[in-house]
Amino acid sequence: MKHFESFGLDVQNECLWRNGVQITLPPRTFAVLRYLVENPGRLISHDELLDKLWPDTYVQPQVLRTYMLELRKVLGDDARQPRFIRSQPKRGYVFVASVHEHERNHNHAPQPHTHQQLETPNHATSSVLIGRDKELHACNAHFSRLAEGTRQVVLLSGDPGMGKTTLVDAFSNQWPSPSSVVVARGQCVEGIGAREQYYPIVEALAQLCASAHSERACAELARIAPEWLPTYARSTSNGNGNGHHTGSIGDLCSALEELSAELPLILILEDIHWADSSTLEAISALARRRVPAQLMILATFSPHHMLQDHPLRSLRQDLRMRHLCEEITLHPLRREHVSTLLQMRLEQDDLPQGLDAFVHEHSEGNPLFVFAILEHLIAERFLIRKGVDGLARWEQRTPFQQMEAGIPDELAQRIELEISRLSQPEQRLLEAASLINVAFPAWAVAAALEEEITETEEAFDNLSRTVPFLHRAGHDELPDGARSAFYAFAHRLYRDVLYQRQSAATRARRHTRVANRLAQLFAGREFSVAHEMAMHLEAAGNWQRAIEVLREAASVPAVRISRPLAEEFLHRAVRIAANLPGSERATTELELHALLQGLSLQALSAPSSAAKEKNPKRKQLQKT
């Protein structure tokens, strides 16, 4: 066992330990960490890492970034102040922690357990899950049906960062002894899955043949499906196949069914939205077979990455229509769950006031975003730790309602990677869309870019079919009765990254064009879009015109009747006036306060006039 700080790398069982707690990593993620730990203190280039872990497959170097992000999350590492993995830009990585070797601590080992064909899950391990009890219970309910010989196919869906892997870990780690349940796990990888047939299945079989069940697994594969036997195991078997990819799906199904005859077998395939068509065909075949089997396929995917022509769409629809699979969807966490996550992370029951509401709002309940935003607040010292030892508490330096969340570096890098794959015209289109809001109408983007609405709508329709973080959200009806398509970003952070990519001058020009277009569309009724116009003009730095728009809106008779709305316009104008230079600011503020005072005087006189009108008898007496 190789130790570094509080972690132990268990090569034999392909897992990580921390203070006696086992952490299960996907096979390829574990392999990346193992290679880094086994080569501490030296620069490992991108090419070396790719050659060692993917010797026969072309993989884009960007794939490594995904693994490093995942490992940093598991290790609690910070890329800016690394304790474990230091990035060398355009070169590679260095494992900087001190590594020493010890014999395996038997206190870490899973305790022996009496064998049962279907062992009751140990729900104590699920305590690390927050807000996912219902989903874990559903997984366990499907597992319990294996005792009847009824195979189960479960699709676990959720957006990136929603906690699919965490749930799978909790589910698969419930059995304290490998003698009770067989688990084989394969991970699809972007840039590999579409090129290498059956990639996650081959990886799961390789893991199975290196597990505690290796002897039986290798024997059954050699007897029933020799072509599926991992290459390294063939020298000790009777297999004589020519490669993984030449084996038939039927043989694979038969072998897995035979392996599940004595013990229940859980085949976990992660991120099948990146799988090749052969892998999806194998899942379909396993789901359709009628042979009784204690076999459960648990496959995770992200609808975020499923474009309209993705083959997984048709497979999912077909299996659900035939009642051959069940789907469990992970939804965003509620505020109370986010609060619990923060309490666990900060090790503090009483959170700084407003922290949970702030993080929940900006993360939209995505667990990955919750932790990224929290780390960002700590790194920017919006959250500081005061006190010493056991008395230290986390406190906010600034009230949360007065601060901006910003964009955590880790998430910004992920989003930038997705955006960089698009063409320049597509990036330009999305950048202009970010000027409006998370949801935006096509006509506003067309105005910002000075392009035709029909062409802009067509471009967005094409993008929504190919870009996973964009979707169509309905229609916007314009004053002349025309309809313009509405679109939305998957999360506000996409909008924020796209907005910040533009120069200040470019943003100002585009904001001004949108404001001008609003004035044209709502000519004569500008007061109805005064807030929107002021927002764009303020963002463009055109303070005086923004103030004038609000002042004119407040003076419209229909608005003055509704005094609170008129006051709202004027108060906002006062806030914008704070940006003006000295004397101009003073003059403008004086004028605006005078208008507000006039509204107040009008409000004071209105009740007495109304009272007179309501009491004609009193009015008659006054005349006499």
Explain what the structure shows.
This protein has 624 residues and is α+β, with helices and mostly antiparallel strands. The protein folds into four domains: 2-101, Arc Repressor Mutant, subunit A; 128-329, 3-Layer(aba) Sandwich (Rossmann fold); 335-402, no CATH class; 409-606, Winged helix-like DNA-binding domain superfamily/Winged helix DNA-binding domain (Arc Repressor Mutant, subunit A). Strands 4-3-2-1-8 form a five-stranded antiparallel sheet, covered by helices on one side. Strand 14 (383-386) and strand 15 form a beta hairpin.
Give a topology summary.
Blueprint: E1 2-4, E2 7-10, E3 15-18, E4 21-23, H1 27-37, E5 43-45, H2 46-53, H3 62-75, E6 85-88, E7 92-95, E8 100-101, H4 133-144, E9 152-157, H5 164-172, E10 182-187, H6 199-208, H7 214-224, H8 249-259, E11 265-270, H9 277-288, E12 295-301, H10 311-321, E13 326-329, H11 335-346, H12 355-363, H13 367-379, E14 383-386, E15 393-396, H14 409-420, H15 424-433, E16 439-441, H16 442-449, H17 453-466, E17 470-477, E18 483-489, H18 492-500, H19 504-521, H20 530-539, H21 543-555, H22 557-561, H23 563-577, H24 582-614, H25 616-623
Helix pairs in contact: 1-3, 7-8, 8-9, 9-10, 11-12, 11-13, 12-13, 14-18, 16-17, 16-19, 19-20, 20-21, 21-23, 23-24
